[in-house]
Every structure is written in structure tokens, then in C-alpha cells.
Amino acid sequence: xxxxxxxxxxxxxxxxxxxxxxxxxxxxxxxxxxxxxxxxxxxxxxxxxxxxxxxxxxxxxxxxxxxxxxxxxxxxxxxxxxxxxxxxxxxxxxxxxxxxxxxxxxxxxxxxxxxxxxxxxxxxxxxxxxxxxxxxxxxxxxxxxxxxxxxxxxxxxxxxxxxxxxx
Length: 167
Ligand SMILES: [Zn+2]
Hints:
The protein is α+β, with helices and mostly antiparallel strands and 167 residues long. The protein has helices spanning 2-17, 43-49, 52-59, and strands at 25-28, 33-36, 78-82, 88-91, 95-96, 104-105, 113-118, 125-130, 136-141, 152-155, 160-164. The longest helix is centred in the first third of the chain and has 16 residues, at 2-17.
């Protein structure tokens, strides 16, 4: 009996790990937790490979001024990649006009984006970042299109690059 329970436990434990694709590894160093990303660069390296605005948004979790992104009204077919590392994060088919002044999507490309909670402006928000390099993308809100996911991924255009679909 005990043996059966142990076998079951083993199956359950190993079954959970399965094929979960985990790019973001959280390392607990005791006094603080640190995240390790597949693509890790020093602050100076990021600074030299990004524009000032991209650096402020991606690496300093800044927010671009509303209605300034040239991607805001982009309706072309294609894929949006992280401006820091090129990971595909959003698809054009999931973009919608939220009226907020920031490019908005009703869903992410699963597994390529990771989430955190922040309290930067006094209340709880879901922060979202690239799972490959940790670059800040924007925030997720629950007031998106009700006929699809109900989510609004409010994204800084500066954190993205658009790759048009090849014809
Ligand atoms: Zn990235």
C-alpha cells in the first residue's frame, strides 16, 4: 500500500514538471531574490544597444508618453518582438484600438512574456516583461475587449519592434 502511494506521489511530482517551458529562473539568494534571464547584459551594454527611450522603458520600467508611438496606429499584419532581444511577444491579430494612446493587445504570445506585480503608482498592477531578457513591456488590465479575452495588455511601443508578415 505504502509503495503504491509512493509511486503515485512520484508520478504526480514528475508529471507536473513535464514540458513546462520555463525561461525565467528565480534564484533565491537568501536576502533577496534575483531573476536570471537567458539574455543578460550589463546596464552599460544595454545602454549602448538601445535608444535612450528604449532603455528607459525596457530597463528602467519607464512609460512612454501616450500617443507618441509610431506603432500605435499600425494595422499591418505581422508580429511584434521585444526591442531588447527580438523575442516574439505579440501578434498583429490580437492588437486593438483601446483609445488609451498605447499599443494594446488582448493577449500575449504565451510563454514569451512573464508577469510581476507592482505598486508603483499606489495600487496593484500586473507588470509584464519579456521572458527572455526581462525587458519591461507594459501592464495588463482587466478592461479589455469582452468579446475576446477581457484583457488589455497596455504596451509601450518603444519596447517593441514590428516585423511585417512576408508576402
Ligand atoms: Zn526581450
